[in-house]
Amino acid sequence: MKFPTDTIRSLAQFRDTGKKPDSGTEQRHEYTVDELALASDCSVRNIRAYQDKGLLPPPELRGRKGIYNNQHLSRLRVIANLLERGYTLASIKDLISGLEQGVGLNEILGIESAVNSPWTDEAPTTLPVGELFEMFGDHADDASIELAEKMGMFSIQGDFARVGSMRTLNVALSLLEAGIPLPALLEVTQQSRDNMHNIAQAFVQMVYDHLLSSAEDGSLATLAPTELSGAIDLIWKLRPMAEIVVKAELGRAMDAAASAVLADQLEKIINNAGSVNPAG
After folding, report:
1. pLDDT at 162 over 50
2. Nearest partner of 22 among 71, 55, 78, judged by Cα
């Protein structure tokens, strides 16, 4: 997920509005809250909510009336663009704080790209719904298919299905063909997902905690541009590092699990083979 052109333009406009007075046709405009709501296509209720959350500075008070200006309008456009891209109000607040403290657009776009670029090289696959159901054949009932969709293994959109990971789906189909029922596969998949979530959370939190040890209030927005550039590099390096660690630890765990679960069975097979009378 990357910033579209209109978002970048609004970010630049917001940055410039706070640094220098407007000139020419871009003179300083003033708005009542109702006028600002109309100009920004934002409800009065949301404008007041953004003020309460610290996303929007308070208006200038003239008597009992609040007067807003084009800096408020620019910020509302930034907020609207970022909300459309899926950002939370908390992350938007950090981003705006960074701009206010002099963090450049290059750093902002760099951290956005490092965080929101896909963490896997596998792109989702779209295929007809009928083809997806044919893959499962007689191995799945309606309840299992519904559960698989709720787990996000795929999503059905009209006549098409969007599969997040065909690699995972192909593994599941191979295990189905081997005789493992779909409910059991889904249960193990959910357990794996929960464990992976905990591992990923711990890994990222470790980097986050140490990365921000020198930042005020533990916020990326308080880092100097050079420190933020270092943070961007570290986030990119985190990707292959995490994959290497998880793969190595999974291999070690599979060795231990296979030994614990299957060692007794292997011993029985060997003993049975040894007790067979070749002459008989």
Report:
1. yes
2. 71
Contact 152, 167 (CB under 8 A): no
With vertex at residue 108, the alpha carbon angle to CA 106 and CA 113, rounded to the nearest 5 degrees, is 90
In this structure, are residues 108 and 11 in contact, taking their beta carbons and an 8 Å threshold? Answer: yes
pLDDT of the residue at 49: 93
CB 66, CB 25: distance < 8 Å: no
Tell me what the pLDDT averaged over the chain comes to: 76
Nearest alpha carbon to residue 225 among 140, 111, 122 = 111
Tell me the DSSP string of 236-251.
HHHHHHHHHHHHHHHH
pLDDT, position 19: 46
**How far apart are the C-alpha atoms of 247 and 280, rounded to whole Å?**
48
Task: Give the Cα separation of 7 and 117 in Å (integer).
Answer: 17
pLDDT(247) > 70? yes
- Cα separation, 60 vs 69, whole angstroms: 9
Question: Which band of pLDDT confidence, cut at 50, 70 and 90, is reported for residue 23?
Answer: very low
Residue 73: is it exposed, middle or buried by C-beta count within 10 angstroms (0-12/13-18/19+)?
Answer: buried
pTM of the entire structure?
A: 0.50
